[in-house]
Amino acid sequence: xxxxxxxxxxxxxxxxxxxxxxxxxxxxxxxxxxxxxxxxxxxxxxxxxxxxxxxxxxxxxxxxxxxxxxxxxxxxxxxxxxxxxxxxxxxxxxxxxxxxxxxxxxxxxxxxxxxxxxxxxxxxxxxxxxxxxxxxxxxxxxxxxxxxxxxxxxxxxxxxxxxxxxxxxxxxxxxxxxxxxxxxxxxxxxxxxx
Length: 194
Hints:
alpha+beta; Lipocalin; 13 strands; elongated; YceI family protein; Lipid/polyisoprenoid-bd_YceI; TTHA0802/YceI-like_sf
């Protein structure tokens, strides 16, 4: 084997190692940490304001570059019957309205990132679109959130307001219809990925 051929083989090997190594550095996947994440749904009723906590969430976020805050993929999954208000009657009405026996999960899947604004120190403001599925109805909705990248920990903070009827969910009622729930709800979240 000639000197040039040996050198060519070595260079090709080095190129392959660099390419594979860079691919692993660039594409980074993080998993949602349920115990550290918070998602609350706030609403109103004819009696009082209320909120429900999501106790069981899962999901993943992939970045092509954490330095630039470039998200390739984001999925979130909330177990419908993990929504808890601390009041069993309210929870039952919620599960009935969401048809939880048929629709076990509420999901969000990122479909498009419109803009990423670098705020410095690993903080990015993201304007995106995604498919939100509630009670079997999927809508593509705008979703704006803040991403904070701190080493191996990623935090997504944001809120989204929408109407239950947009997802064909009848706002729950109680006491034979004497207590009615407002149609509009606001979801506030601080989601941790590691």
